[in-house]
Amino acid sequence: MKKHARRFFRILSLAAAALFVFGVGVSAAERISINGSTTVLPISQILAEGYMDEYPNVNVSISGGGSGNGIRALVDGTTDIAQSSRWIRQSEVENAVDNGHFPVPFAIALDAIIPVVHPDNPVDNLSLDQLKAIYEGKIRNWKDVGGEDRSIAIISRDSDSGTYVVWNDIVLKGARPSPRAQLLASNGAITQEVSGNRNAIGYIGIGYLNENLKAVSLDGVAPTYDNAQSGDFPVSRTLWFFTDDWPKGEILRFINFALHPEKGQKLVGETGYVPLY
């Protein structure tokens, strides 16, 4: 079954990347449910608003809770689309196939995971090695990286988050974060915590950056829109929608809307994330 799952999923991955169909026949379904990543949440919300403006007879409902929760909901049959800020795990694919579900991926946007600090913190650049040492708890004072003599408060996402998975892979390189790290469930929670704590460091998707946070460059590369699009920023990634099997009817029409350069992708840009086109 595992071999079958891997082969089937590779075929679907390649096929899904080529999908861009218009004039799709629509089924009688008038509801679309989306669940998963809080990073992708602002994208899904603006896409849903634009889609319902164009098709007022359709209701799109959205909930967050993390990429893992969204993929589990897809496998359980309780959501039409899983929004994810990471690639689906092989174990999740195998579990889905074992239960008669076949996840199909659609890239919908690009992102950068940005280290952020309080605006009053003088630190504006870190090396990846310094950042890793901070999150491992090996560097505990801001003065050791050019800041003030203050203890560093580490803020991280919980392990069910797709953002955490990508951060762990690229920044921590699989190492365990410090047990001193405070684990929060969403980008919004990290934004609120870091903006109110002069000693804190956290990380968020580029779409959540605001004037109450200070973005930190990595190895001299600023976390800008252009650097995220080019992949020059060291912690860049793709954001995803997953459907159960090949989408049809209303769900396919929504996916096409999300991928359309002058419709969904234009809306993606308005959220602060990076469109594909």
Strands, helices and their partners?
Layout: H1 2-17, E1 31-36, H2 41-54, E2 59-63, H3 67-76, E3 81-84, H4 90-98, E4 103-117, E5 125-126, H5 128-136, E6 153-157, H6 162-170, E7 182-184, H7 187-195, E8 200-205, E9 214-215, E10 217-218, H8 225-230, E11 236-244, H9 249-259, H10 264-270
Parallel strand pairs: 1-2, 1-3, 5-10, 6-7, 6-8
Antiparallel strand pairs: 3-11, 4-8, 4-9, 4-11
Helix pairs in contact: 1-4, 9-10
Question: Top keywords for this entry?
Answer:
single chain, 277 residues, alpha/beta, D-Maltodextrin-Binding Protein, domain 2, 2 domains, 9-stranded mixed beta sheet, two-stranded parallel sheet, 10 helices, 11 strands, 36% helix, globular, disordered N terminus
